[in-house]
Structures are given as structure tokens and as C-alpha cells.
């Protein structure tokens, strides 16, 4: 009768879950204090105001980039989504001091596994925001839809779902 949630045959869309990478208040990316991220220039996602500095993987995949300054990394999922984790706003200027990452480029990670930590008090004492961003990076041939499922979360809690709509 009603098949709202049934995928069409030969659909190239994929859908998966995303988990909280840190304890805190999950918000739509448009509420980020950084106007570039808030405008979704790099892609859609979530902003999290952290209450803890422990960092965890929000998805399964392979680490494809770790910034030299440790303020950001990307994970590529098996379905091809590139997920940027950005730790704090303008924290690139801290040259890695508040970050202790346990992963490197090429590592396979499971959702909810430890990525490292960040010192929230050190970031705040530098006058910067410690918000953590989870961004599904825009790429040619893919449009990613992100839906949130709550606000205050603990790391590992479900925070949303993403769908990759591949252009045919």
C-alpha cells in the first residue's frame, strides 16, 4: 500500500548512521560560530558544544587525513562519504597543543572507537570556541542529506543519519 520508506530498485542512494564523537549539545551546523561552516560551504552536518574532551569516531571508515596541527581529520566511509571532524574554531592557530590524536592517515576506525582527546580548557583560555564539527564534505556526484535525532548526547549515542544521493 504505502511504500514511503522503501527504496526503488536500482537506487544508488545509501544511508547510514552517525554517532556523537564527543559528549555535548548537538546542534544543526547552521548554529556554528564559524560563518563558513554555518553557511554549509563545506557541507552539511552537526556542531557539538562539548562537555568532555574525549574524541570518538562518528562513523566506520578509513582515516584519510590528519591535519599537521591535529585540529581536524577526515574519515571516508565504505559508501564514499567524506566526514570532516573539526575540533574547535580557529584552533589551527594553536599548532596542535591542545590535541592528542591516537589515529593517523590510513587507519581503519569503527564508529565509537577512540580517536584521541582535546583540552577544552586550553582552547577556551586562548579565547576560542571548542565546538566540534561533524561535516559531510560536499563532493562532485554526491549530495548528502543529514538528519539530526536529538540534542544532548554522550559519545557513541546516535545523533543522526546521512543519505548519499548519488547523481545518476
Quote the beta fraction: 35-45%
Low-confidence stretches: 1-12
Shape: globular
Task: State Rg.
Answer: 16 Å
First CA to last CA: what distance?
Answer: 27 Å
Q: If helices are DSSP runs of H or I spanning 4 or more residues, what is the number of helices?
A: 2
**Residues in helix, %:** under 10%
What does it look like?
By secondary structure, the protein is mostly beta strands. 6% of the residues lie in helices and 43% in strands. It has two helices and 14 strands. It has an eight-stranded antiparallel sheet with strand order 9-5-6-7-11-3-2-13, with no helix packed on it. A three-stranded antiparallel sheet has the order 1-14-12, with no helix packed on it. The longest helix has 6 residues, at 120-125. The chain is globular and about 40 Å long. The protein starts with 13 loop residues before the first strand and ends with a strand. Mean pLDDT is 87; it is low at 1-12.
